[in-house]
Amino acid sequence: MKALIFDIKRFAIHDGPGIRTTLFFKGCPLICPWCHNPESRNADPQKYNHVDKIGKKEFMSEKTIGTYYTSEQLLNEILKDKIFYIESGGGITCSGGEPLFQYSFLNKFLKECRSEDIHTALDTSGYAEMEIMMKIAPLVDLFLFDIKHLDNARHKRFAGVSNDIILRNFKWLVSTGYNVTARIPVIPGINTEKKYINRLDKYLSDLLCDNFKEIHLLPYHEIGCSKYDKFNIGLIQSFEEPQAELLEEYSLVFKKSGFKTKIGG
Amino acid sequence: MNARIKSLREKSLNAVESLTAERALLVTSFYKSIDAQKLSVPVLRARTFEHILANKELFFDEEELIVGERGPHPKITPTYPEICLHSLEDLEILDSREKVSFKADQEMKKAYRDIIIPYWKGKSNRERIMNLMTPEWLTAYQSGIFTEFQEQRAPGHTALGEKGFKTGFRQYLFEIEKVCGSLKENSESSARLVQLEGMRIAAEAMVMYAKRISKMLKDKASLIHDEIRKAEILELSRICNKVPYEAPETFHEALQHYWFMHLGVITEVNPWDSFNPGRLDQHLYPFYKNDIKAGRIDKERARELLQAFWIKFNNHPAPPKVGITALESNTYTDFCLINLGGLNPDGEDAVNELSYIILDVIEEMRILQPGSMVQVSKGNPDEFLQRAIKVIKTGFGQPSIFNTDAIIQELLRHGKDLVDARNGGASGCVESGAFGTECYFLTGYFNLMKILELTLHNGWDPRLKRQVGPETGYPDLFKTFDDFLNAFKKQLEYFINIKIEGNNTIEKTFSDFIPVPFLSLLIEDCIKNAKDYNDGGARYNTSYIQGVGLGSVTDALAAINHQVYVEGNLSFSELLNALEDDFRNHSTLQHELIYNTPKYGNDDDKVDYLASKVFEIFLDAVDGRTSYRGGIYRINMLPTTSHVYFGSVVGATPDGRNAGQPLSEGISPFQGVDMKGPTAVLKSASKIDHLKTGGTLLNQKFAPSFFKNEDSIIKLGALVRSYFKMNGHHIQFNVVDADTLRDAQRYPEKYKDLIVRVAGYSDYFNDLGEDLQNEIIRRTEHKEF
Questions:
Q1: What is the ipTM of this complex?
Q2: Which architecture, in CATH terms, is A2-263?
Q3: Does residue B63 have an active-site annotation?
Q4: Please, which residues 46-85 of chain A have a Cβ atom closer than 8 Å to chain B?
């Protein structure tokens, strides 16, 4: 059994506590147009043209995005930074793509992390069968759970899937006592109206508890757009980057409700 | 910062670096005097020192709280013709060069032409050294295989220990008397008595100088109408009448006491590096505590006095360097360094209230000198480390962070007593030393990449177009990669032997002709041994050779191993052709070497083991060898600015680097090749055995955006702690983004105050050569979106 991974980022400091290694799993059932990692959608390795530069001279070559790893290989990769995890209270974060899309592998891999005493975080869209979520949850120390939109019609229109299953999983994780941090991508025009923010605040505040008291606001960043070209993926829509004031305002709403909030994870 | 300090700081920043012939003329007139001919060398040196201090112009700025300048005015720098005689052409170059210039007026040039050059021509130690060096040494020097620290400057760079802060010169005179008494009047001890006589004269000379200043202050005070200031100047006069003869008793006295010693050391000779107050927070704490308790000072006054002390350092640029020595370290900084934190002699956390006050001072002063180093042990609190990181975050390259636990282990390995090791720290760039008890200095940089280039050409230097090294075989005939490494080892050993042989001759010249009776007073056990500091009188003696280009040479070896031996898709003759052509018409190969060949700095064992190999070859060749004065050779891995000079003498190399480009600095990866972030860099860097060195230098560049919240500071602290757990010796951060630096290159006038971390020290960005500026811009910047 192998996982398809499209990036391994060491010294990740915005994906959970401490110094972490973030593993990016390739393949995602959602198609959010603001996605920073569009190359993560397709569940197969993909070829693309890569350019290296020496001075002004360019060197073109065909490269592949996505590498298959056995659980052992991946474990070896993350163990390289174990000393940093221990010192900083960090660990690993499985992100993507949607890591739950490669559930069987994830299940095995997270068990191995457990036996190595490595703190595990799962950065997820929450779009998975409840049964899968129930099996994986005990192996995860912290969920970084995306709440993209509460309105099902809008969620379907943008992300391509219903949010029923997502919100059900979210509620289940919080009410069962798993550690959850909600992550909200802040996309002007999508989820930034005052009315929506208040609705979201109401929804989340109702769930506020010891194991769910932190919210990260992830501002949309144009830097992701260049990837659409690079990997030859049609850019459907571009957005504006949210202003700093908007983010502050957004974050203040949750703070007032008793959440610990962070801008940028 | 109050108005007085602000004004002093402005004056120091605006003072123009220039030269004075004052010291050179005094030294010359004394050496020419009838008296001088009859004196033994130590007494001659001490009497010369006395002559300077008795006759030099005194300076006092009416706002000052610490008194005494080496020159007649801040930033006016004397010359040392007995060590390095500048030619008229040198003075022209110093006066007019674009970077790190020193103004030399007509009067100065006239004194040189008419008096100084005619007397010293052929007699300076620099000329003496060059005459004594073997043809092999001269060839290697010219080829750019090593540099020589003592060529223009005397051995220096030691630090004052605790005793120095607690001891008045009266005590030194008493100790000298005692040792004299115990030495029998036989022929063997006469040489030692002469040494003690020199030390006695030097001690008395400094006391005389302090009293001169005291009198000048008294006279000044009588002209001042402002009663408060008048009282302050009279208090200063009282202090200078007391220290250094008597031991200091107050915070203010302790600072002035040190300053007299600092001035003495940098007036006696031009030591590289100047002199250091060592563990300042430790040394000053008893004075601080007593003064606070007695109500003599409050925290604000302590801060003000420290700031005034800081300005004195900044007033004293490094004496001017010329020629190759200017290329290896061209900067105004004279590497005066403050150590903070660390452990006390019992091995306990030594961080105190003053450690934090001094960090505030560093942050607020934001000046080039003194530099600062925080010592971080397992036993020190995170709060201290995080406070230091917050100063680093302000982006002027200070302080740098040291692993105290590693330094102590290094010093123990070098044979120091545990307490002496715990009282140690770092000076220069990153060099470990036992403060107050050790004579340790750098002797020269060693160009590891040039060794590789010679290995590729069977000992032939393609730049000088002649044979400079031994014939170790043409590489196309080597069957295995190990054969290649063996040839590299032979080349390296050959040149280390030449270097050490040269060093020993040079050490002897300093011992014979330039003893330092004044410095000998301050470093234990020179008095006890009745032996000069430059002749092995100190309790511990170490000579360092600093390896340069580890990252680059590792990448080059990895390329040879990978492309020639493992993959077999490249032959040596193809490679050598491409190198000879500087990759013109070989761009595919260059691309392959740069982009598709494993590189050091990515936590890749396949490459990193080669860094350890090179490190061990270098270590084995140097470590444990003995020096002329009975010291022991150790290695460092640090470059100052020599990685730029060394790069300029090496043609294109197998790592894909073009001819003349800078090498990697310290143990950092080559600029821009570390693709896996800082944890991977630290892992790679920790694979060499730091504990077998006397210091390694690792530079990391972070974008300012990285430090945006408290959380990142804590995480950066954890990053440092992890590196130290792996026995990393030192890490430093440059916090300035590449865009700012590019803008500063375009509009230097807008960035006059921009200080960046170079390598082991910080410097004004505008004072760096363009190639070094580019190199700093290229260093991989870690950032987060």
A1: 0.95
A2: Alpha-Beta Barrel (3.20)
A3: no
A4: 52, 54, 57, 59, 80-81, 83-84
